[in-house]
Design a protein that fits this description.
173 residues; 6 helices; Glutaredoxin; 40% helix; 7 strands; five-stranded mixed beta sheet
């Protein structure tokens, strides 16, 4: 009888391990909740990669858009770029934020791979990215016509991701 009591801690440990393992499997690892959902896009005044003019938050308003955070140093950004070009050809308005990057490298990139963006905001210090809670590139935000953030995706946009994100975008139009 006393020997059976020695196994109680082992059984408890095994049950706790099972509970933690099952709990980790339930969590959705493809999305991180953003505290910015439902809030206005952060205020900014930044130069545009293509022509150097200065734009502000008001320039985002008027129609829904995808705001895509990208950089030339980001290999995943290169992987998603062809799909962004396809979305732009379908009439999806895409705004770029060139994150912690060199403007000349960004211009060369856009010449080489195509430019799906209505315009690109140059964020060389990453200040706007910091306000958006960007972990790295690429990240994409859905904003409605009033400039309110309605969704966020971390990682590359591709046809599989677009199945759900595109539905949400379509509801905003």
């Amino acid at each position: 009888m006393n020997r059976l009591l020695l196994f109680i801690p082992l059984v408890i440990f095994a049950l706790m391990g099972l509970v933690f393992w099952v709990g980790l499997g339930i969590e959705d690892k493809t999305s991180l909740p953003s505290p910015l959902i439902g809030k206005p896009f952060p205020e900014f005044e930044l130069g545009v990669v293509e022509d150097g003019r200065t734009l502000t938050t008001k320039d985002l308003q008027g129609q829904p858009a995808l705001v895509n955070v990208w950089a030339t140093w980001c290999p995943t950004c290169k992987a998603e770029h062809a799909f962004l070009n396809e979305l732009a050809e379908q009439g999806i308005r895409i705004i770029g934020i060139n994150y912690k990057d060199d403007v000349m490298k960004a211009r060369d990139w856009l010449k080489a791979y195509g430019n799906p963006y209505a315009y690109n905001l140059s964020d060389p210090q990453g200040k706007l990215g910091l306000e958006l809670g960007v972990y790295g590139a690429p990240e994409t935000f859905l904003i409605d016509s009033e400039g309110i953030i309605r969704g966020k995706h971390i990682g590359d946009l591709n046809p599989v991701v677009w199945e759900s994100l595109g539905k949400q975008f379509g509801e905003m139009q």
